[in-house]
Amino acid sequence: MLGLNTQTSWRGLVALLLVLPMLAQAADELPSWNDGPSRQAIVEFVQAVTSEGSKDYVPVAERIAVFDNDGTLWSEQPMYFQLLFALSEVKRLAPQHPEWKTEQPFKAVLENDQKTLAASGMEGLMKIVGATHTGISTATFKENAERWLASAKHPKSTKPFTEMVFQPMLELLDYLRANGFKTYIVSGGEVEFMRVFAEEVYGIPPEQVIGTTFVTKFQDQDGKYSILREPKLALNDDGPGKPVSIQSVIGRRPIFAFGNSDGDLQMLQWTTAGEGKRFAGIVHHTDAKREWAYDRDSKIGRLDKALDAAKAQDWTVVDMAGEWKNIHPFELNQP
Amino acid sequence: MLGLNTQTSWRGLVALLLVLPMLAQAADELPSWNDGPSRQAIVEFVQAVTSEGSKDYVPVAERIAVFDNDGTLWSEQPMYFQLLFALSEVKRLAPQHPEWKTEQPFKAVLENDQKTLAASGMEGLMKIVGATHTGISTATFKENAERWLASAKHPKSTKPFTEMVFQPMLELLDYLRANGFKTYIVSGGEVEFMRVFAEEVYGIPPEQVIGTTFVTKFQDQDGKYSILREPKLALNDDGPGKPVSIQSVIGRRPIFAFGNSDGDLQMLQWTTAGEGKRFAGIVHHTDAKREWAYDRDSKIGRLDKALDAAKAQDWTVVDMAGEWKNIHPFELNQP
Fold first, then answer.
1. What percent of chain A has pLDDT over 90?
2. Which tens digit of pLDDT belongs to each residue from B129-177?
3. A67 lies in the same domain as A103
4. Domain range spanning residue A130?
5. Domain total for chain A?
6. What is the pLDDT of residues A84-113, one digit of tens each?
């Protein structure tokens, strides 16, 4: 009996030694995550679905991971960065539109009249987005977005917007890809805007960026071809629009999803309702000092119903203040 | 001088010897293609864009190849296979729809009345497609398409439809992928129908299948989630719809495109209008004996304007009768 027990213990020790390097590797790959419940849940999930012979094993082709962008991969305060781009474009384009001096909501943008701008509501917003995002070719829009991203600075950090990304999430993207996952963005942001920086900043190529889309039209002008963006939404990739776009573009149900707001609820529900082991994560903005703290009452990135769902269904909720050692990459260089 | 010449000749010979294995490999990889102009153009293109240091070199990430499906990757006669599926579904569903016994175009389908069916035109067709392809979840539609594909036989060959694929094109897909290309379907066929067989038959995963789409809706029925297909087209992925869907889903311009009909013209134009070396190919159905012969006057897969464009712009036009040793895989086993 003693012999058998010893043998069993040895087996256990050998198994442990075989597993230890994997755990250590995972720790190396998520260095900005404290060893809290979120990091543990991520590592446990990835090891379960990637270990051959595991009952939870998932073939590489089906390892689809989807991420919201605003508030999940980069900050979204004091307002969505794409909206700041749209406001900046109104100012850049104003000389070509003298009528904007008297026409709302453009007048309010040009005069920095926040109150009137806010009062213009969704209708005013759509006018601004339409005037700055449509009526031009995809090639021209890309140039406009590139120009802005290359020079614009975040109003609080004064850093380029592409540096307002979350270091722990960059590490998570890398960790998943190193484990055979295909990483996608599924965001309410407009698809061509995100494609301008997603490959360089997140390592996510254009064909893995899904977002809100405008109706577009192929144009043939005497053999010169272009794709015109029309002022009509094709898909609002928010809320129930997210499972719809996932099925339309990917055609597979993800096994891993990360969001931060009620706009991600249906994506998280759709992901976790599939068969087999699934992961749903929520970035909870709890860090007023290093980033922002907001949830149930926020106008931007409201997290209310999805927070209740997370608690009821035991989804992973990341406490940004407590679980992230660093927030943005530039803070890594702080003394 | 003689010495220099000899040295130069030796250099040429060495270079030739280095290139020969590559050419030989290409020949091995496209065994169903005769050594005609199409095969030569394909191999020359692939070698140019994949040879590091070549002025035409294209990085792996940008090696996007797009293929039409009906008439390009599989046959499309005597009518589009998806239409045969729709007609079969009308018959299967008829017991649940007693009203179809008197309602056109369903009555015509049930009575095999081809004349009345043809006379019902596009409006009749959309009724049939709507009744068989929409009002159900994506999961149910997938089951229906799988059931049909598993049992239905082609009326002429009596082979399963998934065997009506073109052996030379299967080899071309493999050859491109072996050279770092990402292969996509961009077809007028409905996206979820093609996804049922594209991975197994073509090696093309669901997320690389682009097609005609219906508007879909996320449904939450007491925590049971599904995606409902509504009887409204979201995108008709034909003609000018093809560059639109390519930009929307892939977000990059392909460098290689293959089609067979006027519905592929804009995809070929959009592909070849990009900078750098590009390839446009057309399958010309010239083989009445082994497949079908049709082009300018055909109702299905009409090839007229695209054939003119191909001649004007020196695109590759595959003479099926003269350039393909085999058409369908099952013919490989013929004595």
1. 90
2. 999 999 999 999 999 999 999 999 999 999 999 999 999 999 999 999 9
3. no
4. 81-151
5. 2
6. 999 999 999 999 999 999 999 999 999 999
CATH at A194: 3.40.50.1000
Q: What pLDDT does residue A11 have? A: 55
Contacts of B64 in chain A (CB under 8 A): 207
* 8 Å CB contact of B243 and A227: yes
Q: Which residue of chain A has the CA closest to B208? A: A250
Here the ipTM equals 0.91
pLDDT of residue B167: 98
The nearest CA of chain B is from the CA of A101 a distance in Å of: 34
Q: pLDDT-based confidence at A218, cuts 50/70/90? A: very high
Joined together, the tokens standing for residue A295 give 């949830």
Q: Are B225 and A213 in contact (CB < 8 Å)?
A: no
Q: For residue A208, give how far its alpha carbon lies from the nearest alpha carbon of chain B (Å).
A: 8
CA distance B61 to chain A (A): 8
> Based on the domain organization, do A197 and A258 belong to the same domain?
yes
CB nearest to B251's CB, from A209, A240, A250: A209
What SS3 state is found at A26? helix
Number of residues that make up chain A:
335
In angstroms, the separation between the Cα of residue A116 and the nearest Cα of chain B is 34
Q: Do A217 and B240 lie within an 8 Å CB cutoff?
A: yes
Hey, are the CB atoms on A206 and B240 less than 8 Å from each other?
no
Q: CB distance A61–B205 less than 8 Å?
A: yes
Q: Give pLDDT tens digits for B287-317.
A: 999 999 999 999 999 999 999 999 999 999 9
- Assess if residue B246 is contained within a domain: yes
As a whole number of Å, the end-to-end CA separation of chain A is 58
Smallest CA–CA distance from B182 into chain A, residue:
A207
- A218 vs B218, B227, B244: nearest CB: B244
B317, B268 in Cβ contact below 8 A?
no
